[in-house]
Design a protein that fits this description.
The chain has about 280 residues and is mostly helical. The chain has one domain. It is built from 11 helices and 2 strands, in the order H-H-E-H-H-H-H-E-H-H-H-H-H. Strands 1-2 form a two-stranded parallel sheet. Helix 7 packs antiparallel against helix 8 and helix 8 runs antiparallel to helix 9.
Length: about 280
Amino acid sequence: MTAVPPATATAVAPATTPSARRRTTAEIWIVLGLSLGQSGVYAIVNIVARLTADTRLADQTATLNASQSDRSLLDLVYQLLGIAFALVPVALALYLLSGRASATWTGTRRRIGLDWGLDGARPGRDVAWGFGLAAAIGVPGLAFYLLGRALGITVSVQASALNEHWWTVPVLVVAALQNGLLEEVVAVAYLHERTRDLGWHRAWFVVWSSLLRGSYHLYQGVGPFFGNVVMGVVFAWFYTSRWGRHRVLPLVVAHTVLDVVAFVGYALLPQDWKDALGL
């Protein structure tokens, strides 16, 4: 009997048997345990440590994109290694989906809308939606951060602490893209595929996806937790809406734009401006 070519393999049916559901649930926990779920657990412990410290939450600092070495080239190697290994869970999620959902790597990318460059893809539409989502989230997000600082429920976030090198801005841009791919592919696209396999209602997916997103931002304080939950609701709802059409690329574009503005803008902003804005 001739094997069916991978490109024409039939999509796997949802997990309907108890053993299939247990396997799918275990897979979700493993993927999250290696990526954003692990970050969420550490962030919960971190916020407990912050809230029980002698220093007020508002007087504490969270540093992103810190230098790893005083030597420029060694620091660059560390930064690139960190970005590369952070993308491994993305590859794992795509690999697992390709094995159980569409049976091909290309088919999986099309299924979740990560098909930029493939036939039939519409990058212009994805970019337009991405910038629209970034604008819709970015301005309220900054206002929410400043409000949290004023209320004392958000730490001072240093979006970039890299030393000034010729490669600083390019690395910050790549780091922003890495964050966009990791969070949107795993917390939205992968989680939606797997919770749909388990028969979850769309509303439950939106709730758990947004709570996951908020959890791994808790190290920044209580304010960013709620701000990212709101962002998670918007992104998860959009992804499953008739406008989002299960395409994750607009979310990746939006997240990358937001982080590029935060990372690069913070790195280039004069210190007196940062002080005036409370950054």
